[in-house]
Amino acid sequence: MNFNQMRAFHAVAVEGGFSAAAKSLGVTQPAVTVQIRGLEAELGVRLFLRRGQGAVPTEAGERLLAHVRAVMLLMDRTEAAVASDPAMAGGLVRLGLSTPATIMGLAKRFADAHPAVELRLSTGNTGQLIEDVLACRVDLIAASHIEPDPRLAGVVLGRQRLALLVPAADPLARSGDPLPLDALAGLPVLLREPSSVTRQVFLRAADAIGLSLRVAASLGSREMIREATAAGLGYGIVFDGETGHDPRLAHRPLTAAGPAAELLAADVRLSCLPELAGIGVVAAFLALAEGV
């Protein structure tokens, strides 16, 4: 197995097809096909199944991908890995965020400690970010988790609890006191998309107390939740670190009695591939998060 074969294999897996992989690598599709066929012949297994215009890894392909993705990222991080100080080596940290407010203080501390390292930040929900870090599109993710993903290593940054966003002129905005979850019965609520941990945490808690929900809309970002709430479409469900400082809005912490109270919360974890946790700028970022 050579590097060109691994690079072609990784590109097909990440891009979802041979044509897209060829485009990303700047080569012809037949060149990619030759590399994959050679790798399959060498390993004695089929690595991809064709699906329309795309391709998906077989079970053997998934096993290989778990190792190749780390190799590819390690190649990108060679300079940082051999440098005694990431700040001296320079470089890049790609960080994916599901809750930006929880990480910006840490990002500022890292930038102050390592001014030669560029921070490249992107956002997404937890499911998307896990896919990104597994595919080596980002180096680290800071995301809310109901349970830690066993494929990743990392540290807990904190714990977030759910809150209700309400229009500033709404009667519910007259108090900032915690609001019992069962007070939402019959109210129009605004939820994130199905793959969002915010939504999953809320539905888990609502189900635990038998709450009958009236979902007014499912929205694809916290910004859309804020705008829809301000427009009066419903009451937004967000984590308390996402309430923002919009004068059109107020928020109430959500609470529940008994065991359901802890179901309204989720850990925020800083995570990466285990193979990268001790290397270069990734290790430096994790160490800062741990307070080392």
Can you walk through the features of this model?
The protein has helices at 3-15, 18-25, 29-43, 59-76, 78-82, 86-89, 104-113, 126-134, 197-208, 222-230, 280-290, and strands spanning 48-51, 54-57, 91-97, 117-123, 140-145, 153-167, 179-180, 188-192, 214-219, 235-239, 249-255, 265-272. Helix 1 (3-15) crosses helix 4 (59-76). Helix 9 (197-208) links the parallel strand 8 (188-192) and strand 9 (214-219). The protein has three domains: 3-75, Arc Repressor Mutant, subunit A; 78-158 and 267-290, Periplasmic binding protein-like II (D-Maltodextrin-Binding Protein, domain 2), CATH 3.40.190; 160-265, D-Maltodextrin-Binding Protein, domain 2 (3-Layer(aba) Sandwich). It is built from eleven helices and twelve strands. The chain is α/β, with parallel strands linked by helices. Helices cover 39% and strands 26% of the residues. The strands form two sheets. Strands 3, 4, 5, 6, 7, 8, 9, 10, 11 and 12 form a ten-stranded mixed sheet that branches. The protein starts with a helix and ends with a helix.
Give the topology, please.
Elements: H1 3-15, H2 18-25, H3 29-43, E1 48-51, E2 54-57, H4 59-76, H5 78-82, H6 86-89, E3 91-97, H7 104-113, E4 117-123, H8 126-134, E5 140-145, E6 153-167, E7 179-180, E8 188-192, H9 197-208, E9 214-219, H10 222-230, E10 235-239, E11 249-255, E12 265-272, H11 280-290
Helix pairs in contact: 1-2, 1-3, 1-4, 2-3, 7-11
